[in-house]
Structures are given as C-alpha cells and as structure tokens.
Amino acid sequence: MSNPRWGIVFFLFCTINFSTISSFSDTLQEQQKLDRITYLPGQNFDVEFAQYSGYITVNEESGRALFYWLTEAVEDPSSKPLVLWLNGGPGCSSIAYGMAEEIGPFHVEKDGKTLYLNPYSWNQVANLLFLDSPAGVGFSYSNTSSDLLTSGDKRTAQDSLEFFVKWMERFPQYKGREFYIMGESYAGHYVPQLSQAIVNHNSATGENIINLKGYMVGNALTDDHHDYLGVFQFMWASGLISDQTYKLLNLHCDGQPFIHAPEDCNNAMEVAYQEMGNIDPYSIFTPACTANYTFSNRMLKKWNILGHVSRTYDPCTEKHSVVYFNQPEVQNALHVARQHVSTWDTCSDVINTNWNDSPISVLDIYRELIPSGLRIWIFSGDTDAVIPITSTRYSIDSLNLTTTSSWHAWYDDGQVAGWVQEYEGLTFVSVRGAGHEVPLHKPKQALTLFKSFLEGKTLPTLGQVIVKPESNQAVDS
Prior knowledge:
Blueprint: H1 4-35, E1 51-59, E2 64-71, E3 82-86, H2 95-102, E4 106-108, E5 115-117, E6 127-132, H3 153-170, E7 178-184, H4 187-205, E8 211-218, H5 224-237, H6 243-253, H7 263-276, E9 301-303, E10 308-310, H8 317-325, H9 328-333, H10 349-353, H11 363-369, E11 375-381, H12 389-397, E12 403-412, E13 415-423, E14 426-431, H13 438-441, H14 443-455
Parallel strand pairs: 3-6, 3-7, 7-8, 8-11, 11-14
Antiparallel strand pairs: 1-2, 2-6, 4-5, 9-10, 12-13, 13-14
C-alpha cells in the first residue's frame, strides 16, 4: 500500500520545482524586455521587426562583457534562421561595419544623426545578431584593463562561445534554431575558430542547443603565406605598384606573419602604399573619403517610378557612424554601459597593436570541419587589394578539394555578377566590382548571395529570377 506522505512530498517538490522554473523563465522574459529597443534617434520611420541590444558577461572574474545587437527578421522571425555576423580587425566593431554600413536594416546618413532603411538588409530573410568582440571593441568592455593588452584568437573564440551559450539562455526561443556564422576580413579567423569551438562544445555536452549548420566568410584572412602571395600579385597585376616594389614585398614578407609583421616587411608595405597613392585599398576603383569629398559627388538621381532617392556608394560612411554612435541619446537607446565606454570608435588600436596570438593559418580548421557536413562558403569582392581574390584562390587551391561544378558566371539582372566554383564541402563565390566589404559595395548582389547560401542553392545563372528590393524601397546599386 502506498504511503500518502510520499504523495505530499512529491507534490511539494513539484510545486517548488515548477515555481523555480517559472521564476527563472519570468526573469529571462524580463531581461529580454529590458534589452528591447523601442526607438532609435534619427529613426523617422516605423519598423515591424523587434530589436534587442545589451550585454552578456563572459568572464565574471575579470568583468568582460560583450555587446550584442539583435534585429529579428522582418516577417515571421520564428521560422527564420539565426545568423551571427562578426567583423575583424582584429579590434573592429561589428556594429560599426556589419550593422551600420553593410547588412543591417539601418544605415547612417551623411549628417551623422539620421538613419535610413537599407532595402537590401539581410534581416529580410534571417534574424541577425551582431557581436562586438573581443572585450574592448566597440561597446564591449572589461573591468580589467590588462585584458585589452592580452586579447588574441584563442580567448576571443572562448569568450564568443561563452557569450553564445549564455545568450541562448536569455533568448531560449532560439535554442535549436538553424544557426549560421558569417563575417569578413579578420573574421576569416574568428568564424571558423568559433565554428570549431561550437562543434566541440556540442560534441562534449551531447546537446544541440547551438544548432550550427554552416558558416560563410568574405575577403577573409585565411593563411598568411597565401594571403601575402595573393596581395602582392594583385597589387602588381592591377598596376598599383612597381616591379621593384613587387620584388621587395616578396623578399621581405614571404613567410612572415600577417599580424605584427617584422619591420622590413612593414617598410616594404609602406613603399607599396606610397606608390598606390591616395586610393582606397579596400576598393581600388571607387573614390576615397577625402576632406573635399561632398555628398554632391555621389551624383544622386531620382528613381521616378517610385519617387525614392537612388543611392550610390558613399566612401565616407564610416565617419557618419562615428558621429552617430557617439551621441549619448543613441547609446542610451542601445542600453550601452556608458560608465564603461568613453569614446566609441569603429576599431580599437589598443586591441590591434597588442594582439596576442594569431595562427599563421586556419586551413587546418577547414580540413577538420569540411567532413562534418557543415555548409561552408567563401566569397570575395574582386576589387579589394587588402585581402584580394587572388589570396583566397591560393588558399582554397591548397586544400586540394574535388571540384563538383566548374568555374562559371552567375548573374544579376542579365549582367555577370561574379563567378562561382563548387567543391566537395566548399563553395567559392566572387562578386564582380565589389571591394573588401561586399555588402557595402554591391548590396543587391550580396543579398542574392546570402539567400543562396541559406537555401544551399547555386547562384542564379542567366535567365533565372533574382532577388528584388522591397516594392516601396527600391534602390539602384
């Protein structure tokens, strides 16, 4: 015969346990409410998607806290994947670049105070999470000043993993959701390293809370030897440097690290940049941001059909963001811990100068992760002289992968938008006429690329239908 006292004990246990769970859930919902962005200064339009920003403490002892900004998908966010975007540097803010001038829904006008909608924002098809990493970058901070002098690849990956595990607790609705990691430039290190850390974490815990499906990087630092080789070849073949400097660069930089290169290599690079003149090495065929560059130079024209201004490339967009994100009212709206963040800048020289560890190559991570079945794409704007398409092609070639679809053009509105080659476990895409920040220079084509990646489909060939802007926000790219 059962003892009635056990029923009472079980009832009390369940009551206490459910109460604790309910309290924990309420706390999470309350924190989400605190992180909710209701309005941004300079936003003279309404949006239908939810936004959140705030901090996740990744190390209690030193007080390292990473800043995030989540912009949910425009429509039906619960059915859309989650995408983490990382910028590089090392030491550069994902808010400054990815959010404010590339793939985010808002960009900053030339007055540094007004926002405008990006019709090719990637949150049309995914929930976008931007992360300032490591601590000391953008709005992220540490209570231990020495942390800013000891950052490196290894700790950045560890802290980013810790961030994401804790962020998932704050936003449990994203647990198990399809998840992708993307970024550019030095994120060519961050993205595969974090992907590797997540795969190992899932394996060790036996859980799949972080449902990583793949990653994609653009104009990415990948392998120091191949990256240098490709940079010098691109500079020389594009007519940017002399024969003598080309030889000098190969003599002094071959075999040297990309981060904290020795003096002889840096001196050779300085000669190269003097020969290149006042151009933007990140986009060699577009105007540089100079003191006398004005808004009128952008040659604005009216799109008469829809009555909206058609924007062309603005080389000074980074400066506009510096003005915007230093406004106290903007920082308050984003829940910035202003007691920890003084002057905001796009990149931190302190972090960059004191970078602690940077492996000469991440190709070993590719070799490890490709067999795991992750979707891995690499893209490259072909007018970038900093980490050019030649560098990327040398790195991919060294993987000795089997080609499944040979080199061919992909199209946008009947014009060649770039080229693509597919391998077993990896896809390489070039974007014609784009610089280092592909979504900044070719936003329409970048959105097509992003959609194709998420769908795991090949890019459009001639005659296929491609992405169109929202009907009321058409912008000519």
